[in-house]
Amino acid sequence: MPIPAEFTPRPSTDCPSYNCAIDALHAALSSLKDSYTMLMDLTAVDHGTAAAQRFEVVYHLFDPNSREYLRVAVFCASNDSPEAPSVTDLWPAADWHERECYDLMGVRFAGHPDLRRILLWEGYPYHPLRKEFPLSGLDTPLPAGDVAEETGAGLTPSPMAGGPFVAAPGKTMSKREPSGKDQSWRE
Fold this sequence. Notes:
Blueprint: E1 7-9, E2 17-20, H1 25-32, E3 38-46, E4 55-63, E5 68-75, E6 83-85, H2 94-105, E7 108-110, H3 145-151
Parallel strand pairs: 2-5, 6-7
Antiparallel strand pairs: 1-2, 3-4, 4-5
């Protein structure tokens, strides 16, 4: 399968991987559709607020005939309002992948037929997989008080500052357990 001219190689140890410019992405992926008939995954990477290009969308494609995987990555043009073109017209499975990516990372997909949150409720003000979202979560009231009252649902903060791998005061952890004593990430 010839690789589209818009692709530039990127380092990878597991499968052929390429970068692509955002404005050429949909056309380039469309040219691969006949060979790479399966979209295995679509996700995003947040490189942090200090990065020149913060959000990167990554597509994992599979060709069942040759049993080859292909990775394509694209940086979003905006760090404040990340957006990529939807590929739901090429691979219908992208529907839920794009919704999850929008919900948890905040990347919008232009042309998506029904872009709405899939795991969190509409109106939830945060995107939990972004780098600035604290590990302990943020106390956010549920949108309907009667639901919270009936189900008893609510936010349960992390048990202790420092993350899940910190022993309770006065106790020690097994030497086999990972430890995370560095609490400098807390505000």
